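tmp note - Aminoglycoside phosphotransferase domain-containing protein
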Amino acid sequence: MEISRRATTAHDPWPEHFAARGHPGALRVGAGAEGVVYRLGHGRVAKVWTGRPPIELTRQVYADLARHRLPFATPEIFEVLEHEGVLVTYERELPGVRMRGTHPHGQFGRELPEHHADALLTVLRGLASVPGTEAMRLLTVQGDDRPLWRGHDRFQDALAALIARAVARNGAALAARVPDFGAGVERTLNALRSLPTGPVTAIHGDLVPPNIHVDAAGRPVAVLDFGFCTTAGDPAFEAAVTAAIWDMYGPYAEEHTARLTRLFTDRLGHSRQALAVYQAVYALISYDLFGMGDDDGHFRWCAALLRRGPVFTPS
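out:
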């Protein structure tokens, strides 16, 4: 998930590094779970990666996406280098401006802007038109320790195994804030395994507004920051997660999630049950990625999503 650019008094050595490589004036433009991005000029950016991601696998996923005539641009890696043990990719700068401000926690008003709904539908339809590939299946979801699809032939079974690993990590912290936690996990697993096998397509997994760039008319022109939860899977999973995370912390967040869930059910043909199941799944696999206390917004959000969810906590 993207984190906005913020002022810091600490010395940042990367602009000097990029200047020495022929890119004077490099400007930090954003940061997220995967790394920090710098604009280099001349249509290029550099991403300084956190940890040791599977760069060549990610590069293949980008190439798999580029083979299809999508109505928006996707990332392209030109060069991969290593500096003092840190991986750096040089990539194409994507067009447009962020769908919403500079921070994913920025707030919307009560009304759901029509151009935002249209943009989300365009992106979801576009990604759902790309068949899932072997490279996508080999990716690891953030926080996990193995490729999601390893040992599984169905997306739903792969997610069920991921839930088991995620709950085993730190489930006690979540159980302390979600009543009847064990029974809720079992209900979710049973509902997940009962979903029908459908098409397997490209999944971005983190379509928060800053990860969608739009033009002056509000049309989506680029989708960026693949990797947080990128895989191959059921396009209903993408729709469900997008409905939930488009507005996570605003005063009308629950209302927006409900409206987008209805919209994606009506316009994309996904079942409401599948979307409800996948929203509970997302909370269970991502709850501990940033923190596990009341001071962590994502953790609180996941707990609240489970407490009110019709699958995890039926009325």
